[in-house]
C-alpha cells in the first residue's frame, strides 16, 4: 500500500496530477480542492490510497489524512465507489460529511452529486455506527439560495485547476451571484461557471 507521496509536482490537470518521486512519476487522482493547492515545480506531500481493480491500479491523493480516511470509509458502504467518495469531498469537508451521517442529515448528503434520497439513507444506515459521535459545532450552513457552504471557494479552486486565473474565477462567481440561480450542488455551479467563462 502506498500511504503517502512526497515529491515534486510535474504536472496538474483537471482531475489528476503527476508527482515525481526519485525519478518516478506517479499519476494521482485528486479533487479540485487538493489540486488547487499544487503548483508545478514545487514540492508537495499527499496522503494516498491505492485502489486495486482487476484491470487497473489507481492512486488517489489527499491534502489531509482526514480526507483520505473518509474516502476509504465511504467506500465500505454498498454502491459507493471512488468517484462518489471523491464527489463527497469536493462538496463537503470530512467533518461535515461525518456529522451529516452521524446525525442523519440526509439533506446535506443529497447535495453530493450522485447521491439521492435513498443513497443518503443508505449511507446513514450503513456508516452511522462506524462514524460514532462527532463532536464540534455545526460550522457549515447553506446560504440563502440553498447553495452548499463554501461553494465559492470550491468553484474557484475547480476553475483554477482547469486552467483559468483567480481573476476569471472571481468574475464568473460574481456573475452567478448576480443571477441568483438556486443550485444546490458544487458540480452544477462549477459547470455554470465554465459556461459563463466560455461565453466570454
TrEMBL record:
Swiss-Prot/TrEMBL keywords: ATP-binding, Cytoplasm, DNA damage, DNA recombination, DNA repair, DNA-binding, Helicase, Hydrolase, Nucleotide-binding
One BP annotation, GO: DNA recombination
Gene Ontology terms for molecular function: ATP binding; four-way junction DNA binding; four-way junction helicase activity
Residue ranges crossing the lipid bilayer per the database entry: none
Classification via Pfam families: HHH_5 (PF14520), RuvA_C (PF07499), RuvA_N (PF01330)
Classification via InterPro entries: DNA_helicase_Holl-junc_RuvA_I (IPR013849), Hlx-hairpin-Hlx_DNA-bd_motif (IPR003583), NA-bd_OB-fold (IPR012340), RuvA (IPR000085), RuvA_2-like (IPR010994), RuvA_C (IPR011114), RuvA_C_sf (IPR036267)
UniProt keyword annotation of Nucleotide-binding present: yes
HAMAP family found in the cross-reference section: DNA_HJ_migration_RuvA
Subunit and interaction comment: Homotetramer. Forms an RuvA(8)-RuvB(12)-Holliday junction (HJ) complex. HJ DNA is sandwiched between 2 RuvA tetramers; dsDNA enters through RuvA and exits via RuvB. An RuvB hexamer assembles on each DNA strand where it exits the tetramer. Each RuvB hexamer is contacted by two RuvA subunits (via domain III) on 2 adjacent RuvB subunits; this complex drives branch migration. In the full resolvosome a probable DNA-RuvA(4)-RuvB(12)-RuvC(2) complex forms which resolves the HJ.
UniProt comment concerning the protein's domains: Has three domains with a flexible linker between the domains II and III and assumes an 'L' shape. Domain III is highly mobile and contacts RuvB.
Family under the similarity heading: Belongs to the RuvA family.
Protein name, as recorded: Holliday junction branch migration complex subunit RuvA
Organism: Stackebrandtia endophytica
Gene: ruvA
Amino acid at each position: 500500500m502506498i500511504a503517502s507521496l512526497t515529491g515534486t509536482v510535474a504536472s496538474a490537470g483537471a482531475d489528476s496530477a503527476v508527482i515525481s518521486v526519485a525519478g518516478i512519476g506517479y499519476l494521482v487522482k485528486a479533487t479540485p480542492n487538493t489540486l488547487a493547492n499544487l503548483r508545478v515545480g514545487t514540492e508537495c506531500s499527499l496522503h494516498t490510497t491505492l485502489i486495486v481493480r482487476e484491470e487497473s491500479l489507481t492512486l488517489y491523493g489527499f491534502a489531509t489524512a482526514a480526507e483520505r480516511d473518509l474516502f476509504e470509509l465511504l467506500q465500505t458502504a454498498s454502491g459507493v465507489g471512488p468517484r462518489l467518495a471523491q464527489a463527497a469531498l469536493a462538496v463537503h469537508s470530512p467533518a461535515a460529511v461525518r456529522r451529516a451521517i452521524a446525525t442523519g442529515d440526509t439533506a446535506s448528503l443529497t447535495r453530493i452529486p450522485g447521491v439521492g434520497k435513498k443513497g443518503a439513507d443508505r449511507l446513514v444506515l450503513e456508516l452511522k455506527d462506524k462514524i460514532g459521535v462527532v463532536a464540534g459545532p455545526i460550522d457549515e450552513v447553506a446560504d440563502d439560495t440553498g447553495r452548499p457552504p463554501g461553494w465559492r471557494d470550491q468553484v474557484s479552486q475547480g476553475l483554477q485547476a482547469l486552467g483559468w486565473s483567480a481573476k476569471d474565477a472571481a468574475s464568473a462567481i460574481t456573475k452567478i451571484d448576480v443571477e441568483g440561480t438556486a443550485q444546490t450542488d458544487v458540480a452544477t455551479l462549477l459547470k455554470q461557471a465554465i459556461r459563463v467563462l466560455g461565453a466570454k
